[in-house]
Amino acid sequence: SQQGEEDPQALSIQEGENATMNCSYKTSINNLQWYRQNSGRGLVHLILIRSNEREKHSGRLRVTLDTSKKSSSLLITASRAADTASYFCATDAAGTGNQFYFGTGTSLTVIP
Amino acid sequence: EPEVTQTPSHQVTQMGQEVILRCVPISNHLYFYWYRQILGQKVEFLVSFYNNEISEKSEIFDDQFSVERPDGSNFTLKIRSTKLEDSAMYFCASTRAGYPEQYFGPGTRLTVT
After folding, report:
1. Is B98 inside any structural domain?
2. What is the average per-residue pLDDT within B55-83?
3. Mean pLDDT over residues B49-58, rounded?
4. Is residue B99 one of the residues assigned to a domain?
5. Count of A-B CB contacts under 8 Å
6. I want to staple B94 with a disulfide (CB 3.0 to 4.6 A). Which of A100, B25, B58, B66 is the partner?
7. pLDDT in tens, A27-56
8. For the domain bounded by A5-111, which CATH number is listed?
9. Cβ neighbours for A57, distance < 8 A, ≥ 6 positions apart
10. pLDDT recorded at residue A40
């Protein structure tokens, strides 16, 4: 199974601190996406990184990808209370179609 | 900014009943997907749809499920005879041709009693 696994399962930080979440996956990929989900709500697309990219930025978000280790990290800098949510990585599988496999997510709590 | 929309936001149905969940993908997107998330579990892929036919489906997407694009804007998921274990959040997603980013709708919470 290609499903990714996020680490840690839960993370609690003070507002202003940085939050780092990791994702590992099992087989080669074409693309990896990060999503945010507020409790009981939909999935908000944050950033996509392709297998030939190593790092990508979007605002306070920084995503890295290490294909040799089959892992990715999401860094949120200068966290805010509004960043409190679950964060998921989703990977496709190289050579297959465009379905994405989601991990179990990291639950981030930012304490004001 | 264009968004994927889904209706209804919450659907309650009795076991054995048919339900149709509706989605309006982003207008210039050509690939459409359904995923589901059982409470407390991972988001799981159900099916992808392109050019008016299913392009991939998972083991979950058995004969009880079907998808349709009845017109130029809607994309539907039908569950023929619901079971208790079909209770979940169902998400529709869409992508533009050539761009792998999948944009999700807000979901429909299906409760089967």
Report:
1. no
2. 94
3. 92
4. no
5. 59
6. B25
7. 899 999 999 998 878 899 999 999 999 999
8. 2.60.40.10
9. A63
10. 74
Structural domain boundaries in chain A: 5-111
Residue with tokens 């048919």: B18
Answer whether A92's CB lies under 8 Å from A31's CB: yes
**Residue A70 pLDDT > 60:** yes
Q: Which of B42, B47, B96, B110 to mutate to test the interface with A (most CBs of A within 10 A)?
A: B42
* Two tokens, residue B35: 């995923």
**Mean pLDDT rounded to a whole number for chain A:** 92
- Domain tally for chain B? 1
pLDDT band for B95, please (50, 70, 90 cuts): very high
> What is the distance between the terminal CA atoms of chain A, rounded to a whole angstrom?
38
Q: Look at residue B29 and tell me if it is in a domain.
A: yes
Is B2:B25 a contact under the CB 8 Å cutoff?
Answer: no
Q: What residues of chain B lie within 8 A of the CB of A52, using their CB? A: none
Q: Which helix (H) or strand (E) holds A11?
A: strand A10-14
Q: Collapsing DSSP states into helix, strand and coil, what is residue B48?
A: strand
Q: Show the domain range for B22.
A: 1-7+17-89
Of A33, A35, A97, the CB nearest to B56: A97
Whether residue B96 lies inside any domain: the answer is no
Which H, E and C letters describe B38-66, residue by residue? CCCCCEEEEEEEECCEEEEECCCCCCCEE
